[in-house]
Amino acid sequence: KISNEITQFTFPFDNDVWSIPVHRDNSYYESTYKKSPMSKTDTINTPATFETKDKLFVAIHEAALTDFASMTLLKAKGNQYKSDLVPWRDGVKVYAQTPFNTPWRTIIVGTKPGDLVTSTLMLNLNEPSKIEDTSWIEPSKYIGIWWGMHLETFTWGQGPKHGATTANTKRYIDFAAEHGLDGVLVEGWNVGWDGDWTADGSSFSFTKPYSDFDLDEITSYAKKKNVRLIGHHETAGAAKHYESQLEEAFKLYNSKGVNAVKTGYVNKYLDKKEWHDGQYGVRHYRKVVETAAKYKIMIDNHEPVKGTGLQRTYPNLMTQEGARGQEYNAWSNDGGNTPEYLNTILFTRMLAGPLDYTPGNFGFDYKLPQGAKVQTTLAAQLALYVVLFSPLQMASDLPENYVGKPEFKFIKEVPCIWADTKPLDSKIGGYNTIARKDWNSENWYLGAITNDEARD
After folding, report:
1. Residues 30, 187, 303, 327: which is the catalytic one?
2. Which of 82, 181, 215, 417 is the most exposed place for a label (fewest CB within 10 A)?
């Protein structure tokens, strides 16, 4: 039993730091990054990004977190943080048997924010790929039966507004095929969504569809249209319940030609007792990725433990959430994600790896009880496809909001993977300009976003 870790990070000055709190809002990093002096912080998550008094940019994080508790930073005396491992429910930080390897503690230092973005330190400290044949691992651009639930147009559960019906899914498949998109994500297809599913995920079946969702017919139809169905496994944090069905669920998807799954863990705890980012969660998430690889399935993990480079060892871990995504622009009581937030996450959250933010919202005139809105322009939504890297990228809006919009052509054509990245000019929280070179051509793409201040 490991009860403590005494790693310390000491600075000569009381620097500014961009950070999010630990477990204050939730346990899967869906908080707004705030800039404050170190002396005004308590316990913060990594990656944490510092701007020092001597004009350097420093990011503290970790790499190769595989069977250990994740590291948070507890403010200590003076200008110091010390490692504070996320515990099990019983207070033990880590259970281990010798010999074992601890994660790396990483420090990236640059003279400008962009230097942090292009570092490959975290990836390089992970083991090489354990998947010999990676030919089935492919980037993808997709639409999905998803945003309609957040707009309250559809429901996840059964009823007159059920979104995941055979007819509605075919409509989405037709749209994807017409516009050259690779896949269609379908949420709410499986038994377990009725009632307050967030309170107890033990009712979810990952092999039994609702009666109005014909899995055989839909996957066959998608194949004829050269479109892939993207599976969805929401667990509501019931990790053990999910693990009991993993093999059968992935075997089913594999037999139907489904090679990508979005997983979800919408609950403050896993199995009502353990943190997402403790050793309990780390072990669970890795088991899911390893089992998925066995059945040649790619994973898009939502409500995850933070990324520390596991995608090098298991490249079927395509992308993760671990941030306030587009859905906060539908129901968040604080109004949604601000432009400042979007100009911060490239230099904070994204130092942990690809982010499934789900950009591409074209419809800004919706009204919901919480009053949240997309606080960007259409041009900014397009720029996010270049600024925010994810090998799986979603065109997140309702299909009808793309019809007749010439700007949609950019979403259809912009790549998902890149051969080179050049951060050009940036101010964390203020503005960001980045250029990326397409993996498969000589084309370069430029993305530029700003906060709520106009710039020339």
Report:
1. 327
2. 417
